[in-house]
Specification:
3 helices; flat; seven-stranded antiparallel beta sheet; alpha+beta
Amino acid sequence: MRAFLNDFGVESILVGIVSLILLIVLIVCFFPYQVEAEVTSRIWISDVAVERWQENTHEDWDVPQGGVIVKSEQRIRTDLLDNSNNFKNDTWYTYTIWEWTTVRHIVATGADSPHWGNMTDIHDQDKVNPERFGAKSATFKTEFKGSDGKEYNWTGLQLMWEQLEVGTKVRLTVNSIGSLYAVERIH
């Protein structure tokens, strides 16, 4: 037996055993299973960015069209090499530019009837610094209590969220570390 271990290599056997143990742990932890659960709470969050047309100051190696140079200085660029593989000197600019900038967010939350927040809270008539609506996003979260006693959280599409009233019975597909893969209503 000792000759076999020496010929095959103790290190190889140990690596094989450790690999097998890791594979078993991964399968056990990530193998999905189903658990029945009940919806215990749900919430929606809407967010609308409000942007203002304003002059901003930036620094960069290049000045975009419309930018006005405020200051320039020579700096060594560590991201560019010359023909001799030395770092290059280049001009670093400080400039101002008029642009749409997110200045605040209109956020609303609730448990029923999702909507965007107070959409009249915008100053679009200002001649110098008018505002406009920017990106919109909505998040729909649901919490469940599983028959296994564990709590599960899910974030998903509004269409599914609307079908998950508090008290709704569902079947969850989860794994041992608590990741939730699928939600299915039980009729």
